[in-house]
Amino acid sequence: xxxxxxxxxxxxxxxxxxxxxxxxxxxxxxxxxxxxxxxxxxxxxxxxxxxxxxxxxxxxxxxxxxxxxxxxxxxxxxxxxxxxxxxxxxxxxxxxxxxxxxxxxxxxxxxxxxxxxxxxxxxxxxxxxxxxxxxxxxxxxxxxxxxxxxxxxxxxxxxxxxxxxxxxxxxxxxxxxxxxxxxxxxxxxxxxxxxxxxxxxxxxxxxxxxxxxxxxxxxxxxxxxxxxxxxxxxxxxxxxxxxxxxxxxxxxxxxxxxxxxxxxxxxxxxxxxxxxxxxxxxxxxxxxxxxxxxxxxxxxxxxxxxxxxxxxxxxxxxxxxxxxxxxxxxxxxxxxxxxxxxxxxxxxxxxxxxxxxxxxxxxxxxxxxxxxxxxxxxxxxxxxxxxxxxxxxxxxxxxxxxxxxxxxxxxxxxxxxxxxxxxxxxxxxxxxxxxxxxxxxxxxxxxxxxxxxxxxxxxxxxxxxxxxxxxxxxxxxxxxxxxxxxxxxxxxxxxxxxxxxxxxxxxxxxxxxxxxxxxxxxxxxxxxxxxxxxxxxxxxxxxxxxxxxxxxxxxxxxxxxxxxxxxxxxxxxxxxxxxxxxxxxxxxxxxxxxxxxxxxxxxxxxxxxxxxxxxxxxxxxxxxxxxxxxxxxxxxxxxxxxxxxxxxxxxxxxxxxxxxxxxxxxxxxxxxxxxxxxxxxxxxxxxxxxxxxxxxxxxxxxxxxxxxxxxxxxxxxx
Length: 718
Fold this sequence. Notes:
The protein is an alpha+beta fold.
């Protein structure tokens, strides 16, 4: 999958070479005096849930010999070896760290104690994660040319004193600290027996960078920076993003695209897997790094402000973490990401199929780990289905994923724009997910942070790291101020939701969000004139009415008493509350939602609350659906559907002006209308659909000329 720095005269394998094959056939040509050798100076130290075994190798430099590691409740001797558990076959050179050697372009060996020295060139290493607690003995034997020395045990290769082991969450090893103390680098040794070590082994590094003014008396936002393909994590003092939070810089040396790989396939054979399951291995270790930082008293992490970010493969991984673990991340910043892994021709062939097998096989996934509980119900789904983020969200829109900041370049031929970036704005909106996006003419080189459209509103200034997991937000879809989706060729740069914002704790222009079990209130405003958008309540903390529950809503301009518009809706089958065609003005609009049974006492299709709001009696049939309370020719039911006033004869749905260049009619803000045309008064054809009113009068400006031959128009609710 990737090239490794090869140390001269040694096998560049170490712990990252993975499982080693069993004993080979034949006794070989070595003499008994050589065969009788065993590893020396075996030691075992248990710390923080893992046991570190180190020994001196028999024949340093050999590439064919290996060692078997045994564990037992009694001292291991020739008589007890058969009863001991054989834990692993470890190759020569197992103290060598290929991934770090590749990153630094020099020979690097593992460090197994905090800020300790590197292991020696001729030492072997195995790290065991015990599943049970107790006293245990260890031994190591040498296997050469298929022959294992099982008759020679001494204090040199078999412990004479037991090691007490406690099953616990393993802690990483602190291997480096910058002079300023701001950046620490850790090695995490994963559970060997719950890992496929044939793809790069089971040890990985990451770094944690602190802002210059860090103090652990304050909870800090924390962001996971995920590397792009071919790049590696950084560990210097400048790696903290804008010095505004704690940065965990994660590595992916085997280019797994930050998800995972096959559980049992031997990747050393070079072909992609044809069977087995795909496990979220990379996600597990990324989230373990996050967990380890969260539980370390040195770091004070604000768990309501966790983020994932970066570009290319890193942006893809950030987006994946956001879709897979919405219970963790407040927001995700993803630049040039893969969004639908099956549809990228280049990377599917180069990386995904060698990792996961052919897309046609679509091997099943298994999600594991501390934070995977909410997504284990997806286990068994095909990996290419699971890695189609928008398909998952469209099929299960009730999953409250984080806010996404998205970018794609129209000239990106690396992560193909046509199949990845171009469809994304429409897919975000169809899924009613919260997002802001910029699509520009850049190539895969990406954009500079200063180019991101953050100045318009505080909500969108991603560098402030203000989004919170414990706060809801509105998802805007199909805003009239957005460019078309998919993005048009002109203008060259397209924006989505950039000019919309809401008032909240970190952007308080009209108070915080009210989020109770029976009421939800939020103030929204536009930075680019009056516009309309569908507004979906996302990640509500308390306002979670059951599907089918009635909701009364109102849209009240800031500073006003009377509602600009009001009406009712029902919570959809996915538990979402969406107000379509919401009018949003530059001065701000207070959107109020409250649960209501929508009682219809007369059972005539007109709810009681609406009759009450217009001083009509919900118990009197004379004020019911078939009545025409203002004698304007429209029944109360028709006025209810049109959102007009049943007590005002001047408030009705009808065309008021038909001019050579326009049509105008009375309208209700937020109502969508359809204009139809006929030449024979029998066949009515759509002329304009989804004309959304933003005021009490709506004007439709005609094209260069009206249809020929002349006919008639009519107006309907869309």
